[in-house]
Amino acid sequence: MKAKDFFGKFCSKFLIGNLLAMLLVVIALMFSVKYGLDWYTHHGEGIKVPKVEGILYSEAYNKITAEGLNIIISDSGYNKRLPADCILSQNPGPGTMVKAGHTVYVSVNSPSSPSFAIPDVVDNSSYREAEAKLMALGFKLLPPKLVDGEKDWVYGILCQGRRVATGDHVSIDSPLTLMIGSGQYDAGENIDYIEPEYKMMQSGEVDDFEELVE
User: Fold this and answer.
1) Nearest alpha-carbon partner for 140 in 148, 149, 131, 151
2) For 78-87, what is the mean pLDDT?
3) Are strands 176-181 and 145-147 parallel, antiparallel or unpaired?
4) What share of the chain is helix, strand, coil (3-state, %, to 5)?
Protein backbone atom coordinates (compact mmCIF):
# COMPACT_ATOMS: atom_id res chain seq x y z
CA MET A 1 0.00 0.00 0.00
CA LYS A 2 1.34 3.34 -1.00
CA ALA A 3 1.68 6.15 1.54
CA LYS A 4 -0.68 8.26 -0.52
CA ASP A 5 -3.43 5.66 -0.28
CA PHE A 6 -2.79 5.18 3.49
CA PHE A 7 -3.14 8.87 4.37
CA GLY A 8 -6.01 9.18 1.94
CA LYS A 9 -8.14 6.86 4.08
CA PHE A 10 -7.54 9.06 7.16
CA CYS A 11 -8.52 12.14 5.20
CA SER A 12 -11.76 10.65 3.96
CA LYS A 13 -14.97 12.65 4.29
CA PHE A 14 -16.49 9.99 6.53
CA LEU A 15 -13.72 10.15 9.12
CA ILE A 16 -13.57 13.94 9.09
CA GLY A 17 -17.34 14.10 9.54
CA ASN A 18 -17.19 11.80 12.58
CA LEU A 19 -14.42 13.85 14.17
CA LEU A 20 -16.35 17.07 13.64
CA ALA A 21 -19.47 15.49 15.10
CA MET A 22 -17.55 14.36 18.20
CA LEU A 23 -16.07 17.82 18.59
CA LEU A 24 -19.51 19.40 18.37
CA VAL A 25 -20.84 16.97 21.00
CA VAL A 26 -17.98 17.85 23.38
CA ILE A 27 -18.55 21.59 22.91
CA ALA A 28 -22.30 21.14 23.44
CA LEU A 29 -21.66 19.22 26.67
CA MET A 30 -19.34 21.94 27.95
CA PHE A 31 -21.89 24.68 27.31
CA SER A 32 -24.66 22.55 28.81
CA VAL A 33 -22.70 21.97 32.01
CA LYS A 34 -21.71 25.63 32.36
CA TYR A 35 -25.07 27.24 31.68
CA GLY A 36 -27.04 24.37 33.16
CA LEU A 37 -25.28 24.72 36.52
CA ASP A 38 -25.74 28.50 36.43
CA TRP A 39 -29.46 28.01 35.82
CA TYR A 40 -29.77 25.32 38.48
CA THR A 41 -27.92 27.30 41.15
CA HIS A 42 -29.36 30.68 40.06
CA HIS A 43 -25.85 31.97 39.53
CA GLY A 44 -25.75 35.75 39.33
CA GLU A 45 -29.11 36.09 41.02
CA GLY A 46 -29.28 37.23 44.64
CA ILE A 47 -30.92 39.41 47.26
CA LYS A 48 -29.09 42.23 48.95
CA VAL A 49 -29.29 41.85 52.74
CA PRO A 50 -30.87 44.99 54.20
CA LYS A 51 -29.33 46.81 57.14
CA VAL A 52 -31.21 46.08 60.38
CA GLU A 53 -28.61 47.11 62.96
CA GLY A 54 -29.91 49.80 65.31
CA ILE A 55 -33.63 49.11 64.80
CA LEU A 56 -36.08 47.08 66.90
CA TYR A 57 -36.42 43.37 66.27
CA SER A 58 -40.05 43.68 65.14
CA GLU A 59 -39.02 46.17 62.44
CA ALA A 60 -36.04 44.03 61.46
CA TYR A 61 -38.27 40.97 61.14
CA ASN A 62 -40.63 42.74 58.74
CA LYS A 63 -37.74 44.16 56.75
CA ILE A 64 -35.93 40.83 56.40
CA THR A 65 -38.94 38.66 55.61
CA ALA A 66 -40.19 41.18 53.03
CA GLU A 67 -37.05 40.37 51.00
CA GLY A 68 -37.76 36.63 51.12
CA LEU A 69 -35.13 35.97 53.79
CA ASN A 70 -35.33 34.43 57.27
CA ILE A 71 -34.19 35.95 60.57
CA ILE A 72 -33.04 34.14 63.73
CA ILE A 73 -31.82 35.56 67.07
CA SER A 74 -28.47 33.90 67.73
CA ASP A 75 -27.17 35.95 70.66
CA SER A 76 -27.86 38.85 73.00
CA GLY A 77 -25.82 41.64 74.49
CA TYR A 78 -26.25 44.83 76.45
CA ASN A 79 -25.78 48.44 75.44
CA LYS A 80 -27.33 50.92 77.85
CA ARG A 81 -27.41 53.59 75.13
CA LEU A 82 -29.81 51.52 73.01
CA PRO A 83 -33.40 50.38 73.73
CA ALA A 84 -34.26 46.79 74.61
CA ASP A 85 -34.79 44.36 71.67
CA CYS A 86 -32.68 46.57 69.44
CA ILE A 87 -30.50 44.78 66.87
CA LEU A 88 -26.84 45.03 67.90
CA SER A 89 -25.27 43.09 65.02
CA GLN A 90 -26.20 40.97 62.03
CA ASN A 91 -24.63 38.20 59.95
CA PRO A 92 -24.38 38.38 56.93
CA GLY A 93 -23.70 42.08 57.01
CA PRO A 94 -25.75 44.71 55.19
CA GLY A 95 -25.32 44.73 51.42
CA THR A 96 -24.24 41.07 51.18
CA MET A 97 -25.75 39.23 48.20
CA VAL A 98 -27.51 36.00 49.23
CA LYS A 99 -30.05 33.63 47.75
CA ALA A 100 -33.74 33.65 48.56
CA GLY A 101 -34.54 31.84 51.80
CA HIS A 102 -31.13 32.59 53.32
CA THR A 103 -31.09 33.10 57.10
CA VAL A 104 -29.84 36.32 58.69
CA TYR A 105 -28.59 35.83 62.27
CA VAL A 106 -28.93 38.80 64.63
CA SER A 107 -27.89 39.75 68.15
CA VAL A 108 -30.42 41.74 70.20
CA ASN A 109 -30.04 44.13 73.12
CA SER A 110 -31.06 42.78 76.54
CA PRO A 111 -33.54 44.79 78.63
CA SER A 112 -31.17 44.85 81.61
CA SER A 113 -27.46 44.65 82.22
CA PRO A 114 -26.06 41.14 82.73
CA SER A 115 -25.01 39.99 86.17
CA PHE A 116 -22.18 37.66 87.12
CA ALA A 117 -21.29 35.71 90.22
CA ILE A 118 -18.53 37.15 92.38
CA PRO A 119 -15.48 34.86 91.97
CA ASP A 120 -13.58 33.41 94.91
CA VAL A 121 -11.14 36.26 95.53
CA VAL A 122 -11.95 37.30 99.11
CA ASP A 123 -9.21 36.14 101.48
CA ASN A 124 -7.82 34.15 98.58
CA SER A 125 -6.10 36.69 96.31
CA SER A 126 -3.89 39.71 96.19
CA TYR A 127 -5.30 43.02 94.99
CA ARG A 128 -3.78 42.63 91.50
CA GLU A 129 -5.13 39.09 91.09
CA ALA A 130 -8.63 40.05 92.23
CA GLU A 131 -8.62 43.17 90.05
CA ALA A 132 -7.70 41.14 86.96
CA LYS A 133 -10.38 38.49 87.58
CA LEU A 134 -13.16 41.00 88.22
CA MET A 135 -12.31 43.27 85.29
CA ALA A 136 -12.13 40.25 82.97
CA LEU A 137 -15.79 39.59 83.83
CA GLY A 138 -16.69 43.18 82.99
CA PHE A 139 -16.94 44.67 86.49
CA LYS A 140 -15.90 48.25 87.15
CA LEU A 141 -13.75 48.91 90.21
CA LEU A 142 -13.62 51.97 92.43
CA PRO A 143 -10.48 52.93 94.36
CA PRO A 144 -9.81 50.25 97.01
CA LYS A 145 -10.60 50.75 100.68
CA LEU A 146 -7.70 50.16 103.07
CA VAL A 147 -8.27 48.03 106.15
CA ASP A 148 -5.96 46.64 108.82
CA GLY A 149 -4.22 43.50 107.60
CA GLU A 150 -1.58 42.10 105.29
CA LYS A 151 -0.59 44.58 102.60
CA ASP A 152 -2.58 44.29 99.31
CA TRP A 153 -4.46 41.20 100.51
CA VAL A 154 -8.20 41.17 99.68
CA TYR A 155 -10.38 40.97 102.82
CA GLY A 156 -13.77 41.84 101.33
CA ILE A 157 -15.78 43.39 98.49
CA LEU A 158 -18.29 46.24 98.76
CA CYS A 159 -21.08 46.98 96.29
CA GLN A 160 -23.04 50.18 96.85
CA GLY A 161 -21.98 50.15 100.49
CA ARG A 162 -23.10 46.53 101.01
CA ARG A 163 -20.67 43.71 101.53
CA VAL A 164 -20.98 40.91 98.96
CA ALA A 165 -19.72 37.36 99.19
CA THR A 166 -18.39 34.76 96.77
CA GLY A 167 -21.16 33.50 94.50
CA ASP A 168 -23.42 36.56 94.84
CA HIS A 169 -24.74 37.76 91.46
CA VAL A 170 -24.01 41.44 90.87
CA SER A 171 -24.81 43.60 87.84
CA ILE A 172 -21.77 44.72 85.88
CA ASP A 173 -23.19 48.25 86.02
CA SER A 174 -22.67 48.29 89.81
CA PRO A 175 -19.08 49.27 90.61
CA LEU A 176 -17.20 47.28 93.23
CA THR A 177 -14.81 48.37 95.96
CA LEU A 178 -12.12 46.00 97.14
CA MET A 179 -11.18 46.01 100.80
CA ILE A 180 -7.44 45.41 100.91
CA GLY A 181 -4.89 45.28 103.69
CA SER A 182 -2.85 48.38 104.43
CA GLY A 183 0.08 46.50 105.93
CA GLN A 184 -0.77 47.75 109.43
CA TYR A 185 -2.45 45.87 112.25
CA ASP A 186 -4.66 47.03 115.10
CA ALA A 187 -2.57 47.61 118.20
CA GLY A 188 -5.31 45.95 120.26
CA GLU A 189 -4.56 42.66 118.58
CA ASN A 190 -1.05 42.50 120.07
CA ILE A 191 -0.68 39.87 122.79
CA ASP A 192 1.94 40.48 125.47
CA TYR A 193 3.74 37.41 126.76
CA ILE A 194 3.75 37.23 130.56
CA GLU A 195 6.34 35.14 132.31
CA PRO A 196 4.79 32.65 134.76
CA GLU A 197 5.46 33.27 138.42
CA TYR A 198 7.20 30.62 140.50
CA LYS A 199 7.46 30.50 144.30
CA MET A 200 9.57 28.31 146.45
CA MET A 201 7.81 25.52 148.35
CA GLN A 202 8.27 25.21 152.09
CA SER A 203 9.74 22.00 153.41
CA GLY A 204 6.33 20.78 154.59
CA GLU A 205 4.76 21.49 151.24
CA VAL A 206 7.53 19.48 149.53
CA ASP A 207 6.79 16.40 151.72
CA ASP A 208 3.07 16.68 151.01
CA PHE A 209 3.77 16.96 147.25
CA GLU A 210 6.00 13.85 147.31
CA GLU A 211 3.31 11.85 149.13
CA LEU A 212 0.72 12.97 146.61
CA VAL A 213 2.94 11.88 143.71
CA GLU A 214 3.53 8.45 145.28
Assistant:
1) 131
2) 90
3) parallel
4) 35, 25, 45
The candidate with the shortest Cα–Cα distance to 138, out of 178, 175, 177, 172, is 172
Work out the pLDDT band at 187, boundaries 50, 70, 90: low
How far is residue 26's CA from residue 32's CA, in Å, rounded to a whole number? Answer: 10
Average pLDDT, the chain: 82
- Distances in Å between the Cα of 32 and the Cα atoms of 19, 35, 36, 173 are 20, 6, 5, 63
Residues written for the chain:
214
Nearest to 130 by CA among 152, 162, 160: 152
On whether the CB atoms of residues 75 and 110 are closer than 8 A, the answer is no
pLDDT of residue 191: 46
Helix (H) or strand (E) holding 40: helix 13-41
